[in-house]
Structures are given as C-alpha cells and as structure tokens.
Amino acid sequence: MQFQPVKKTNQILIRKTSTQFVRCALLAFPAFCALFGCEAPTSEKRALLLFPPPPQKPRVQFLTWANGAADVEDQAGAFERFVLGEEERSLRVLNKPYGLAVHDGAVFACDTKGLSVARMDFRNKTYSLLGIRGPGRLRKPVNITIDSLGYKFVADTIRKQIVVFGPDDEYVSAFDLPEPARPVDVAVFENELFVLDNDKTCQIVVLDRRTGEVLRTFGSPGTEPGQFRLPSSMCIGPEGFVYVSDTMNWRIQKLSRDGEPVWSVGQPGYQIGQFGRPRGIRVGLDGIVYVVDGATEIVQMYDSDGNPLMHFGGPGTTPGALDLPSSLAVDRSSIPYFQDFAHDSFDIDYLVFVANQYGRHLVSVYAFGRFPDGFTVAENEIASIPAIPEGAGIGPASPSPPPEPQRKDQSQPSESPPTTPPDGS
Q: How far apart are CA 261 and CA 220, in angstroms?
C-alpha cells in the first residue's frame, strides 16, 4: 500500500495547526496558572531517608523518583504534551520497567510492557522512546548496557537478539545468539560483548562487539561453581570480573571472563547474605557489588570479596521503599542533575538507580556517600520506612526457598523453568 500525498499534506497541516495552538497555549500558561492556582513544584525541605539510619553512620540517602516525562520535562514541555492530547501522553509514562542504564544525566529504562526503552534525560529535560518502529523495533526489552561512546546494547528475549542503538539513539544493528536463545542481560568489556542466556543452556555467550561473531561460551546448568539455574542478571566490574545473579541457586557468583569461578555467596533465606530471589546485579567504581532481591524487596551490598556490607530499601509504597524491584544502575556522571535532592552536608560518591515493576515510584534514585565525621542529623529530620510486615523483608532464614508474596505477579522476563531440569536430572 502506498501513502497518498494528500493524506501526508493533511497530516502536515494538522501538525502545523497543533503547533500554532500549542504556542498560543504556552503564551497563555502563566494566566492559566494564575486563574486555576497551579504553580511550579517547590523545593520544600523534606525529611531524610537514610541507610543505615542514625545513630549508625549513614552511607545511602534516598533522593527522588521518576515515572515518566512529567518528572523530567519542564513545565512548558509537560503542558505542551497535555495540550496535544491523551494519545501522545500515554506514550510518555513508564508501564513496567525492568532493566536500567544511565549515561550522562539520561536514565534508560527497559519497559517490558511498553515494549520500548524510555530515555529520561535529566540533563536536557527531555523524554523520548527507543525501539518503537522500524528494524530496531523492540518486542520485549529486558536489560540494557551503554558503553563509553554512548552505544546502547539491549537484550530482547522475544527477538532473541542484542539490539544495538547508536549515540544518537538510532538503530544500528542486531546480533543473533546460538539457538535456543533467551538473552536476559548484556555487558561490555573492551571489544567483547557478554550476553547472559538463561534458556536450557544457562550459559554466557561472548560476542565480538563490532561484528556479533561468537567468540566463546561458558557456563552450564547445575549447582556447582560456574554453573547456573535460571540466572537473571550479569555485569562486569571495573577490575574485569564477571558477576552473575544466579536466581534459582539463590546466590551470586564472581567469575573470570573465561568462566573460572572465583567465589559464590548466598543461600535461600531472608537475612543479609541470603536471597529470596536475586535479580539485578551491578558493581560500582569502588568495587561494591549491588544485588536486587525481588522477594525481600531490598538491595544488598557486598565488597569485591563477597563479604556482606549493608542493605537499603525495603517493602512498601512510600518514597524510598521498593515495590517488586527488578534491576539497578550505578552512575557518577549524573550527580549534578540530582545534587539538589541531597542534604547539603552529604558528600555523594555516585548514584544508584533502582527499577520497581509496580507502585507509584518506578525508578528510585539513591546517593551513596557520607556525612563529614562528627556530623549529626537531628532526629526530627529523619524519615523511616514503615515497619516491615511479618513474613516480608529481612527476617528469619528459611530452610527452604522463601515463599513468594501473593500480592504481585512475581514473574520476570524469561523466568519460567526450562522443560529439562537445570541439573539435567
């Protein structure tokens, strides 16, 4: 079917008319606000949500959250979208985020329900979508990583490919994986692309990041070191080691880039050092390993030797709590765009972004850092997450895999067991 020129002309006329109307509406915006009493958001003083809470020395501060364009764009941009109508606005909110990556003030969220990657650019105050049409159209984006040049690599479980977008967010190419394929995460190290495949092979596929050629694979189904059962996330730390969230073995593993085991930590349970459902895993520039637990709804922190350090988050619906968290991203370049949300005396080392699949705070932003020695926070300045309900969050260890909360859909992309048991039995 060919496009008719008259329809294209009408479409252009409609766009011009809409643009003129928007400009007029924007000129009238101040009067509109004065008439109806709307005003710009104020930076009123908020209580501090700190982890661990005083009198312990806090290292993590909750800053803010974002759900879509309204939390990124300035008032004019938001009002323009309002004038353009519901159809336009419906594409400008997150539906069900899973994987995250952050690059120079822009947060990229894989929307498994919106079938796209949302770019929330806090530096330029813009919101846009990747992978909504053409050869780069995404079918179920799960996780994303970005290299130093700004190239985006998206793991798509339905396409069974790694879809590549350039620094300008335009589609570049797509890399196939050996069948059967179910890519759930991707990481870049130098000229190699590491893909976590949680089909029945439970392996990591290493590709040439320029050509997509398969260079090697490692890993297999099982419970021994270097083996996996439904692994859900993977990253490469600054020292070049591979970290894997080995979900149905209730552990995390550290491996060499050739698959040699270094250490593994975890067992079923609710305490620190134990996991209910380990999901997203990322490593900070300081070597701290961050692991999202979707069952206890916290983020656990470990040093590079696998020793537990602390945790933050917790189940709930208040800002700073987590609601079925799936993944996270660590970034230092975006500090200037979130500095105003932090306490004036809190020295930020880097930011931690956590994706929630449910709730009113879909991307939560935390700062890792410290207060000066001897600094104290007044008790009336401190907020807290409501007490954790019995049977949820941190609690007694269970001798069997912790039960899943029934209030939510616990499924994650590609988290259904393979037909053949992972241990081959």
A: 13
